[in-house]
Amino acid sequence: MSNFNIYKASAGSGKTYTLVKEYIKKALINDAKISHKPLLAITFTNKAASEMKSRIISSLFYFSNKYNSDSASQKLYKDLKLELGYSDKVLQDKSKKILLDIIHYYGLFSVSTIDKFVHKVIKGFSYELDLPSSFTVEMDQDKIIQEGVSAVIDEAGIDSELTNGLLKYSSYKTTENKKWDIEEDLFQVSKELFKDQKFVFINKVSDVTAIKSVQRILFSEINFFEKEIESVANKIKKLTQGISSSSFYYKDLPNYLKKINKKPYSQIEISDQFNKRLYHSIQKNKWYKNDATSEDKKSIDNISDNLHIILNDLIQFLKRSYSAYRFYKQCYHSFFLVSVLSKIDEKIEYIKKENNIIHISEFNQIILRFLKESPVPFIYEKIDYPWFGMINNYGEDISFQLRAKDAGIDSYVDTSIIVGHEKSVVLDLF
Q1: What's the pLDDT at 362?
Q2: What percentage of the chain exceeds 70 in pLDDT?
Q3: 366 pLDDT above the threshold of 80
Q4: How much is the pLDDT for 430?
């Protein structure tokens, strides 16, 4: 089996230089008629592909003519001459031939992005993949998602379950002082549909029974927290009944009572749970102002011990439970978004089918599914030259035998078969 050379390098360390050198080196040592034909260079971006093509051609031009060039080309010339052991004339002549071949057979000059290569592979067996021959590749994921989300929202008022879910989630957002419009939320969560684990993800979130079961558990935890807060608020309200709110330091306790007595409890301070002045009152067990009425002072003194116990317990409870409560509440309502994903996915698939669209992110999954059901060599039959073409001008059959040998696969001959043509070729296969 052929060896793989893996180069690990950071930005600016000379990756392009190394790749260009390896490309030209392989072309130089290939004595075939079109030496660059079997070579494929793959990059991540179009810019990188363009740069690599430019570097290869400019370097070959310099090698062919020994004209003045940049220092990179000069260094490349010296490195290749040393590694290959070529004289100046041999290197010059071979470089000139490769350059002319590239010009005459530019379509075989294969330096492209991964996306472009995979696209070509899929185009080669679109029939077997049950894809329309005229399919187009869509790069804009956001455009497809937006169309799918809009199609689902348009069903509001028709699908009762969907409509109720939309209304509940919008109401939740309103109570949380957020925008009631949920289109952006659906758009963001729908990006999961274009990730590699989409199919596993969709299978899990399409189980409505499982989702509702989790929501019931979350609702139970949410309800427990809210009942506890309501209980505390009622106790404080009962204790302070008849006492003027202005008698308390800066009205801290009455104001805080308003916060914890009003859903969605978003104003409870999660950082230290209590404002500093109220916390000071609890620690010092000092609640009222100096100018409070004597009657209020007496009433507050009578309840101060109970206030101290109740609020200390509240502090501990919030430290244990408030963050979890906020998390559970967010999850509870976000599960609606997740449950709608399967509907959005159906709409997106319909839109793509109607418009003969395939998103670039689907290519790998499409090929993987196909190869699971087909012999791997089948893919080679569907890909054009130069990547799986002939070796050293041998025919496809001999080239196949050479690759089989390289892969460690034994070859056998059935001598009983009569063929219409014969040609003697000596191969060291056994």
Answers
A1: 74
A2: 77
A3: no
A4: 47
Tokens of 401: 């035998």
Rounded to the nearest angstrom, the gap between the alpha carbon of residue 153 and the centroid of all alpha carbons in its chain is 25
For the purposes of burial, counting CB atoms within 10 Å of the CB of 220, is it exposed (0-12), middle (13-18) or buried (19 or more)? exposed
CA angle 151, 329, 331 (to 5 degrees): 55
Amino acid, res. 155: E
The residue ranking higher by pLDDT, 269 or 164, is 164
Q: In Å, what is the CA distance from 105 to each residue of 2, 47, 292, 385, 413?
A: 26, 22, 97, 12, 36
| Cβ-proximal residues to 192 (8 Å cutoff; 6+ apart), any chain | 198, 201, 341
Mean pLDDT value of segment 333-362: 79
Residue labelled with tokens 């319909």: 350
Distance CA 145, CA 361 (A): 13
Calpha distance 382→379 (Å, rounded):
5
| CA separation for the pair 420, 223 (Å, rounded) | 84
Rounded to whole angstroms, the Cα distance separating 308 from 383 reads 79
Find tokens 């109220």 and name the residue: 278
What are the C-alpha distances in Å from 358 to residues 189, 197, 226, 335, 343? Answer: 20, 17, 48, 28, 19
- Which residue from 105, 107, 113 is spatially nearest to 49, judged by alpha carbons? 113
Q: Are 266 and 295 in contact (CB under 8 A)?
A: no
The DSSP output letter for 189 is H
Q: How many CA atoms lie within 13 A of 35 on its CB side?
A: 17
Burial of 67 (0-12, 13-18, 19+ CB in 10 A): exposed
Q: How confident is the model at residue 224, as a pLDDT? A: 92
The SS3 of residue 29 is: helix
H or E stretch covering 54: helix 46-65
Categorize the per-residue pLDDT at 270 as very low, low, confident or very high, splitting at 50, 70 and 90: very low
- Tell me phi and psi for residue 61, to 5 degrees: -65, -40
N- to C-terminal Cα separation, the chain = 15
Q: Where along the chain do its domains lie?
A: 15-108, 138-355
Burial string for 361-380 (b: 16+ CB within 10 Å, else e) reads bbbeebbeebeeeeeeeebe
CA 20 – CA 41 distance, rounded (Å): 9
The whole-number average pLDDT for the span 125-136 is 70
